[in-house]
Amino acid sequence: AQSVTQPDIHITVSEGASLELRCNYSYGATPYLFWYVQSPGQGLQLLLKYFSGDTLVQGIKGFEAEFKRSQSSFNLRKPSVHWSDAAEYFCAVASGTASKLTFGTGTRLQVTL
Amino acid sequence: EAGVAQSPRYKIIEKRQSVAFWCNPISGHATLYWYQQILGQGPKLLIQFQNNGVVDDSQLPKDRFSAERLKGVDSTLKIQPAKLEDSAVYLCASSLNIGGQPQHFGDGTRLSIL
């Protein structure tokens, strides 16, 4: 069965600092990987996705993620965080055919000014 | 394009009562999903529809939860009778089709059971 681990429950960074959120997945074949962001009281917004090809994926709002098969990881990065980036971030994995998403437990990002 | 619409946004009921949620997916999206998100956790898939057929309902508590997608567009999710542990946010999502297509989420319905 597929699974996702986000080891960091809560991260605090200063505005302007760089950010890396960790995600490890378990899946037998080549996974489809996603990062979503959720602001309080809202649904999830897709930041970026990896299906195949270039292992460095660019997303919206200046985010990027790198797929590393050898480490079963798909970490999210941003070079300079803005206060508006404070939110909950979810990593998710899907099988190729059924598209059922399995989510991690999320990382709450706090940004200090 | 209009996003996924859900109603109501909030619902408070007592245990053993019934409740229903409504979802209107993005126009043209064949696949519709209902997720349950308990506080502090990631969303968990309850049921997945492809047009008006069920693809996956393996995690739906069928003794109390039911869902339908008549005519392959709108969908309703019902809980009857509700238990305290059903307190959660219920998210609806849609995608163009099956096969790894990105899912677009609505803002959810926050359900509180007293």
Q: What is the radius of gyration of chain A?
A: 13 Å
N-to-C terminal Cα separation of chain A, in Å?
41 Å
What overall geometry of chain B do the principal axes of the alpha carbons give? globular
Radius of gyration of chain B: 13 Å
H and E string of chain A: EEEEEEEEEEEE
Please report the two chains with the greatest interface, counting residues with C-beta closer than 8 angstroms to the partner's C-beta: A-B, 27 and 27 residues
- Number of continuous helical runs of chain B: 0
- Mean pLDDT of chain A comes to 92
Compressed to H and E, one letter per element, the order of chain B equals EEEEEEEEEEE
The amount of beta strand of chain B, in percent, is over 45%
Task: Tell me about this structure.
The complex is a heterodimer of chains A (about 110) and B (about 110). By secondary structure, chain A is mainly beta. Chain A has strands at about 5, 10-15, 20, 25, 30-40, 45-50, 55-60, 65-70, 75-80, 85-95, 100-105, 105-110. In chain A, the strands form 3 sheets. In chain A, strands 2, 5, 6, 10, 11 and 12 form a 6-stranded mixed β-sheet that branches. In chain A, strands 3-9-8-7 form a 4-stranded antiparallel β-sheet, with no helix packed on it. In chain A, strands 1-4 form a two-stranded antiparallel ribbon. Chain A starts with a strand and ends with a strand. With about 110 residues, chain B is mainly β. The chains are: A mainly beta (about 110), B mainly beta (about 110).
Summary keywords:
heterodimer, A: 113 residues, mainly beta, six-stranded mixed sheet, four-stranded antiparallel sheet, 0% helix, 52% strand, globular, B: 114 residues, seven-stranded mixed sheet
